[in-house]
Design brief:
This protein is mainly α. It folds into two domains: about 40 residues, no CATH class; about 120 residues, Arc Repressor Mutant, subunit A. Helices cover about 40% and strands about 5% of the residues. It contains five helices and three strands; from the N terminus they run αααααβββ. A three-stranded antiparallel beta sheet has the order 1-3-2, covered by helices on one side. A hairpin with a 2-residue loop joins strand 2 and strand 3. Helix 2 packs across helix 3, helix 2 packs across helix 5 and helix 3 packs across helix 5. The two termini are about 25 Å apart. This is Cell wall hydrolase CwlJ, involved in spore germination. Pfam families: Hydrolase_2. GO terms for molecular function: hydrolase activity.
Length: about 190
């Protein structure tokens, strides 16, 4: 299981544990009101695993600056994942995102995700691609892109700069991995 998948499983388990603890605390209250009926979808629970050191009463905490991710960069990566790898397992989608990130650090390619995916002759026409935003495949692609750009997610194709479907040869490149229907190269 990859670091990304392990983290996701832990978040789901933690959310379930929080829900159970909250229910037990509520049920133990002698004057608890009748349970509220939920008729729509169950609301999502945000779980964080960050542990903060307690501060003394006179010490003020400075808010941590999280790096802001550019929504356009996320969208460029998500479009490629959705178009090229939505039918692949998560590991394959993460590897596609990592190819884009690897290219951003290689001097032969642009230094931004959108620059990489819009480079002539490399990917489909990303700018004109408008995938459905209301389906699971888009949600997964967007999440994988966000986490990859934020530095999360281990790739099973470390160092790969290229990928293609398994049926097409790519002579002259070093094969890094095969994940489902894609082969990744340096």
């Amino acid at each position: 299981m990859s670091k990304f998948e392990t983290k996701r499983v832990l978040q789901i388990v933690a959310a379930g544990a929080c829900s159970i603890c909250a229910h037990m605390a509520w049920a133990a209250t002698p004057t608890a009101p009748p349970a509220e009926q939920i008729t729509g979808p169950t609301p999502a629970v945000l779980v964080t695993t960050d542990v903060q050191t307690p501060l003394s009463p006179t010490t003020a905490a400075a808010p941590e600056e999280e790096p802001r991710l550019d929504p356009r960069e996320i969208e460029c990566i998500a479009k490629v994942i959705r178009h090229e790898a939505a039918n692949q397992p998560i590991a394959g989608q993460v590897a596609v995102a990592q190819v884009i990130l690897e290219r951003m650090t290689d001097g032969r390619f642009p230094t931004t995700a959108c620059g990489v995916v819009n480079q002539r002759g490399q990917f489909f026409n990303v700018d004109s691609y408008d995938p459905p935003r209301n389906d699971t495949r888009w949600a997964v692609a967007h999440r994988v892109a966000t986490e990859a750009l934020g530095g999360d997610g281990d790739s099973a194709a470390d160092g790969a700069l290229f990928f293609h479907s398994a049926g097409a040869p790519m002579p002259g490149r070093t094969r890094v991995a095969r994940i489902a229907d894609h082969i990744f190269y340096r």
